[in-house]
Amino acid sequence: MARKPSSNDCVELSRLIGKGAESLVFLGTILGKRVVVKVRVSKPYRNPLFDEEFRRSRTRIEAKVMLDLRRNGVNVPFLYFFDTKNYVIVMEYVDGVKMIDVINTLDDPAIKKYAEKLGMQVGRMHSLEIYHGDLTLGNVLLTRDDKLYLIDFGLAGYSKDVEEYAIDLHLLRRNLNAVIPEKSELFFKSFLKGYEKSFEK
Hints:
By secondary structure, this protein is of the alpha+beta class. It contains 5 helices and 10 strands; from the N terminus they run βββαβββααββββαα. It has helices at about 50-70, 100, 110-125, 160-180, 185-200; strands at about 10-20, 25-30, 35-40, 80-85, 90, 95-100, 130, 140-145, 150, 155-160. The two termini are about 30 Å apart.
C-alpha cells in the first residue's frame, strides 16, 4: 500500500525521462530499487494560490486512481508513496517499451492480441468509474513478459458519466488513425472485443 513519505525516505534522481504539460518525470533509485519520480510543476500563468491547490489536488487524485486500479487488477505501476506538499509521486519502474514505439513492427495477430488485452484493461478501469483522460498508445507499456501496463494518470479522474469513458475511446481511436491508419480498424475492433468482456456496466 502506498504511504506518504517520511524523513527517512531518500530518493536519488538520475535523469529526466519525460516532460509533460504539467509535470517532469525522472528515473531514480530508492534503497537500490529503480523508481519513477513524477513532479508536478508550477505554472507562472496561474494564480499562486490556485496553482498550489491545483497541483496538490491533482497529485492526490492521481495517487488515489493508481491505488484503486492496482487493487482491482488493472496493470499500473506500483505506487510507493506520494507527497502532496511537494507534488511528488514515486512509483515502480516498469521495464517495458511504449506501445506507440513498437506498434508498426507487429503483425496482424499480435496487434489483435494486444488490442484485446488493452480493451480488457480499459474496460475494467471504466467499470471502476475511472477515466484515463489521455488514453493513447504513448501511455501503454508492453513488458518483456507480454503484459500491458497503463501509465500517466495526470488527467485521470472519477465519474459515473459514460461520456468520460467515450472520450477515452475517442482519444484512442484518433491516436490509432494517426499512428497506424491502415491497421486502425483491426486494432479498434479487437480492442472493443476485450472491452466488452470486462466492462460491467
